[in-house]
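Lest this sound abstract, we think one record worth quoting, the chain in one-letter code, the fold tokenised, each line plainly labelled:

>
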Amino acid sequence: MIRAEAAPFSSTTEPTSRTTGPVQRHLPGFALSEIEQSVIDRFEFIVNECTDRPAVCSRGQMLSYGELNNAVNQTTHAILAHCGPGSEPIALLLDHDTPVIIALLAVLKAGKAYVALEPMHPQAKHQALLTDLQPRLLITNDQHRVLAETMVAESPLEKIMILNVDRLPADLPLVNPGLAITPETPIAIFYTSGSTGQPKGVVRTHRFFLYRVWLETHFDQININDHFSQLISASFGSSISHTFGALLNGATLWLYDLRQNGLGAFRQWLHESGITTLQLPVAFYRQWVETLTHHDFFPQLRLVIPTGQLFRRDVERLWQHFPTTCHLISRYSSTETGMVCRMVIHSDTVIQSAIVPVGYPLPNQEVSLLDEVGQPVDIGQVGEIVVRSRYLSAGYWRRPGLTNQTFSATPNDAQLLYHTGDLGRMTADGCLEFIGRKDEQVKIRGYRVERSEVSAALHCLPGIRAAAVTVNENSVGEKQLIAYLVATGDPAPTTSEVRSGLAALLPDYMIPTSFIMLDQLPLTANGKLDRQRLPQPASERPALAKPYRAPRTAFEATLARLWSDILGVQPIGIDDNFLDLGGHSLAATRIVMRILSHFRVDLPLGALFEAPTIADMAIVITQRQVAQLDDNELQQLRATLEMPEISGRFMLEAPIHPV
């Protein structure tokens, strides 16, 4: 059962927030009609209303709205002096600090679109983005001037101008430029690799930004006394939620560099900044919660918004450290759609599924689930998530073919359809459950497997703090699941324990072949799983419940080598369980065939599951071999080997009929 806020209505009237807590709104309401303007129109209105109120705080520096606007205006006039009017893109090469906020607002005031680059990314990625973007201007500062000059010098494009914001003339005008900017004007381009691995720029407009802010202003009851965290780089689409949620409502935006400062100082920063609305990558959220003690409490927090898929365990510890008036927000969004679904989780919300649902469709957003031929699926069935709305991305930068392939117009209205490539499942009351990427669905031994479902099951097991599931191919080209685990303490669960726990939750084909324990999952600077840094599965024997016991006879050693050839694991002890070593029905078939070829014993497939260790299998094979001998051969064998009988079972020093 899921108890949370009811499904939002789909009309165009303003929604009523379900978030409780004191509201101190001192500004006129943010009406839906205000979406049909520019972000700068709204920002300058807020500046007039909140001139002396704090706007941005970073690294001990606080700027009021008036001071922020003056700095933005001077930078805007410098941009216009270099480029003139027009809606071209401008690249930003700045750290996660106040200058990037000033620069991106200045780009918007100049009627252009910003693209934030990450200074720590490799040069090859910078060049790929610049080649696709083709900007005329790159904004940087003293800290990254040399890197900017190198990027420009090595770029195959025509001359790219560099604007150093630390060297602006002091006499630049402080007045608003007053340019006319329409809601359809591009505001930003966010690059995402998607399933192809090639960067593609998703274009967002002023209307797109304002609709997102309008939604959250009302659902989250944003007011000028709110303190918003900004932990997410400006290069990510999810950064707009807090940057503009704060600055278009007169609230205060607090920047914190997770990459530089880590989680060590995060707790103190939360208290000192008085953050009321916390948005952070879900991986960092998990790590942070794990560091909290029973003494840690954050009474000022009223909203916690992890970006990424949530599991039930992520919710269970929340109210040990936050007041019951604080709410956790689960939501579904993409770079192309923005926020589409949303659910508020209260302190008494009961979530029975391992994966936390992402909520109900928001106003002016229609969500459908379609099968592989484009037909709607039934309630409870998995289908591709398709979004219909007027407030979607304008498409992909300089890629009209991909835009037309992915976005399609709907007849008789101004709305678009976007096929997300994500898989979901709808509950009877209209709540969406996110399953995973369509391109991450994989066939394992003929069965369709969603990696997110395997990951969710791993998160349900005791002793597991974090988990990720990937797919690779073995030596014969078969796909197999690999699980990467972080334990909650020491000692970590053994592979035997993890596999046994999963066996109670999942069918055998969904149980990973290998389990790799890590101290931490490798993350990108913005808290996403860095799959490229995950170690490849090794052939070493995993940590099992029983200690390693070497083969005692030549027969057992021969079986161990045979198992190693099939399973790709060594060494294999005589008490090691076939399943714990990554065995499955297909591998069992191969081992049975090898036994037939090597020992001339025809075993049923089930024999390997009934006798799942080398020690047990040696006895079974010996019994079968003995049963195949005639009386004379049996008497001769007993006389020659003097084999003892143990409870009716026999153990040989060597195979009877090796080939």
Observations:
- The CA atoms of residues 51 and 66 lie 5 Å apart.
